[in-house]
Amino acid sequence: MLGIILYSSIVGSKSINDDIENLNVAIDWLSKGELVDRVPQLSSSHLSVTIAKLNTFIDSLSGYFNTAKSEAHLLLEISKQILDRGDLIQSQVSSEKSKLESTSTSVTEIQSSAKTTYDRILSQTTKTNYIADELTLVDDEMSFLSKNASDLNASTLRSMETLESERKAITKALEKVETMNRMGDEIQSTISIVEDIADRVNLLSLNASIEAARAGNMGRGFAVVAQEVSRLADETAKNIEEIKKVVKLSQSASRESLQSMKEIVYSNEEVKSKFEEISKVVRMFGEISEKNANNLATLKHLLTDFRSDAEKISHEMKTQTELTKVSESNLHSLWENHSSISATFQEISEEALRLSQVSESMEKIVAQFQFHGAED
Prior knowledge:
mainly alpha; Helix Hairpins; Methyl-accepting chemotaxis protein; MCPsignal_dom; transducer
């Protein structure tokens, strides 16, 4: 019996020693990161409870490290994806920023061009208004000239009518002067007859005086009559000479008047011809003035339409300029937002890089432990 007890004591003592040795080995494994094996139970002593709890702890720790390894690997993959996507997004943001800068430059150029175009349109509108005002003045002057041309044409027609009346009056006077000239010739013929008669009477009175001298006292009365007849004949001759002078002067004046009247008629015809030419020119000027007035009216209408279109374009260009300013401001804000986004993604990339480094470090630390599922 005592032997049995001693044997049992020896066997039990040996089992406890083995359990303690196993615990020491297990603790040494744990210090080396070995979590694969479990501590065997060789006795049913109180150490068996400790070994069981230690095995449970190893199982839990193995599960924790397995989870940590999976999470570290997943975190590493996610951080790499974030880095890759961050680089892609950073590249896209940089590209968009470059495009925005190019677009902003284009918008600035468009704004400058729009401003230049707007200023030119304003200048053109001012010039158009000036031209319209000048055309209005020209139109008024053309209307005034057209009215004056009409008045001048009417005056020319009245002058032509007056010239025609004068021509008729001068023609009648010319006919009368020609009649007077013919009458002067007839008077000259009559004077020649009277002069011939006076010569004959004078010759008869001379003969009568001779015969009265021959008759003596008987012929004294006849001699007195003969003397009186001779005196009358002499006076008649003198009067005839005076009449001849007057008739000669009258004929000369008639010829001069006739020549002057012919010249007047010729001049009148020339003046009438000039007035007819003037009338034609005035009528042509009136027609041209009327056409010019119509052309000016059409041009004024076109200028009015052009001015209206220019004002509309000016308003639209002003609106476009304001819109380009707003677009430029929006693009600037968008560029700043992209810059902020770029900076944010840069920070995210840096954090992701640090996270990747931490994940790699964590994965390396976890890799130092051996446990179930570590090969996965």
